[in-house]
Amino acid sequence: MSHSKGRLYVISGPSGTGKGTICGEILKDIRNEFSVSMTTREPREGEVHGREYFFVTHEEFEVNIGRNNFLEYATVFDNYYGTPKDIVLKKLEKGRNVILDIDVQGGLQVKAAMPEAVMIFLLPPSLTELRKRLENRGTETPEKIEKRLSKAVDEIKFIGEYDYMVVNENLEEAVATVRSIMTAEAARIPDKVLPIIRKYEQEQKGE
């Protein structure tokens, strides 16, 4: 059989649920690749074009907007950030899985642009545990932590838009669950097979 296309996996969840860590584990599999975003901000020291981001001008970014070449994009502090559609599609055609670590708002944009994307929502064991994780970081003020918790509640309201939920209470178990989802999705029969089956059945019946 010819190699199958890869799948796009959208992984979302509130800050503190371990998205980055889980994605890092998933990306150890050579079949999986991270989706590199495009941005108009200036590169920081040590950043490489095409590795951390695709660094472009505002004009170049807006040309891509005009071409409808973003699965999602947003403006943050006067700079654009977005996921280039053409690059993702090329990777999928080569049979690679593409992992997109993105917030809920961006995830819903991706779902609208590519309904076939596999949507995975990461949850903390509880909001109490999420608060503890945010506090243990030691990088944010109590006010910012409260804002993140409030945002987490708002984001969780959209969990029904996702295909799967994974509770990250134990990191190894959460990673194993995500890998199980990807294994099952790889064995999913494509929707386009169904019309072929129906046509075959009709021919058998002489219709």
Description:
A hairpin with a 2-residue loop joins strand 5 (70-76) and strand 6. The chain has helices at 19-26, 58-66, 85-93, 104-113, 127-137, 142-156, 171-186, 193-205; strands spanning 8-12, 32-34, 37-39, 53-55, 70-76, 79-84, 97-101, 118-123, 164-167. The radius of gyration is 19 Å and the shape is globular. It has a domain at 8-35 and 96-205: Rossmann fold. It has a five-stranded parallel beta sheet, sandwiched between helices. It has a four-stranded mixed beta sheet with strand order 4-3-6-5. By secondary structure, it is α/β, with parallel strands linked by helices. The mean pLDDT is 91. The chain starts with 7 loop residues before the first strand and ends with a helix. It contains eight helices and nine strands. The longest helix has 16 residues, at 171-186.
